[in-house]
Every structure is written in structure tokens, then in C-alpha cells.
Amino acid sequence: MAKWSVKAAVIGAGMSGLVAARELRREGHTVVVFEKGSKVNSMWVYDPWVKSDLSGLDQAHEVVHSSMYKSLRTNLPRPIMGFLDYPFEAKHGVGVDPRPFPGDEEMLRFPRGFTADSGVVKLV
């Protein structure tokens, strides 16, 4: 525990932000997590919606506002995606994907489970 306590803001509820929030709270600090998206790890939320050019200069131009695409998989294998005290497992979903690299649905289930199990969900 810290000898003194601070109010800390964590920007982003991706995996780094979530574990930072957990560790800050473990040290006795007051933490709030700000996330632009509607869910934790929202950069992994697939949305097929495509919007017209935001600048309005080219009405025929189509822009995808996400780096996600259907069936995207991470380039890191499961054993190194988790934390020492919270391994990346399929316990928060139905079935186990035998492939070594998690897909988009697992990349959303894991942080949801982590936030619920660690109590960080109340900070986001």
C-alpha cells in the first residue's frame, strides 16, 4: 500500500489501461478510467457500418472508422496475452478455439472477465 494516495485518471479501457487501473487501486489510489468507446477494449469491437466522408468534400468517398474487420485475430498467442495472476483462458466464453491466436470475440470476452473479476468494472 502507498503511504499517500492520489486521484488518478487512466485514459483508455484497453488491456494496458485496465491493468494499470487495477494496480493503482491495489496501491490504495482513487482511480477513474475514461474510455471513448462503449465497451472495454473497444478497439476490438467490430462494426460493419461505413460512413461517408466526414469532411464533406467528396460525397462518393467511403471511410471505415475502425481498424477492426470481421474475423480479425491478434498476432500474439494466448500464453502471452494474459497476466501472471490472470491468464488468458476461454473461461469467460463458450467453447475453446484451438487456434493459438485469439479472435475478436475472445479479445472482448477476456477484458470483460478481467474487469468483473478484479473489480475494475466499477472504475470505467
TrEMBL record:
For this UniProt entry, which residues form the secretion signal? none
Coiled coil: which residue ranges? none
Which family does the similarity line name?
A: Belongs to the FMO family.
Q: What is this protein called?
A: Flavin-containing monooxygenase
Q: Which organism is it from?
A: Rhodamnia argentea
- Upper lineage ranks? Eukaryota, Viridiplantae, Streptophyta, Embryophyta, Tracheophyta
- This chain is encoded by the gene named LOC115733257
